[in-house]
């Protein structure tokens, strides 16, 4: 049975796993991500593979990684802001050092592959995956495969109170705090904001209605551009979905929106999906 070495590289931890064609995780290792130095970062990624799977050349057909940054078609990463490194030749470095083909995609894209191939909505012909956390990321799949696009959905410009803002700067987890600030309300986090909404705080409710409008306008815009059969949502903000989900659904008539169904291993499993797709 063929296997893939999957990497899920984050700003805090890097996870590596050996995953088979049934998408079963056979081995897994988690290590702190080395930040701030490109050479040390690259060496650490190769080293975690060598430590987790000493006989990796016999075990795997390729390496596939999901990373929190913009990736070129050849696996070159422009920057990883949370890791404080840029101009990162990850795929070519790992191929040269480890001797296996290496494929790299943005972490939202590999999570979308997990959802589109293994999640509850895997039978949908097309799926648009959106994560709303510190920022906003998205990816479009048709038939379980990514549709390549340079469109970074979180950076879409939206008007608010006579000014133009990037969508994620107003609607993401950190953006909600900015939205509140612009309306004279101080909150420390999205979680605290939705707690105020749940308790019917008058000022929070006014901001909440603006946030729902921003979210629904955004969803309608993406729907007009891509017309997916289903949208699936995840991310830190959606931990508070019990507060806002019904209102968001009601604000998007005729558009199917759902909560993601995959597990916390979606980054690893999605990377494996991408690896198998690219290797065959």
UniProtKB/TrEMBL annotation:
Coiled coil: none annotated. SUPFAM superfamilies: Actin-like ATPase domain. It comes from the Bacteria. Pfam families: ROK (PF00480). PANTHER family: BIFUNCTIONAL UDP-N-ACETYLGLUCOSAMINE 2-EPIMERASE_N-ACETYLMANNOSAMINE KINASE, ROK (REPRESSOR, ORF, KINASE) FAMILY. Belongs to the ROK (NagC/XylR) family. This is ROK family protein. It comes from Candidatus Alloenteromonas pullistercoris. The lineage of its organism: Bacteria, Bacillati, Bacillota, Bacillota incertae sedis, Candidatus Alloenteromonas.
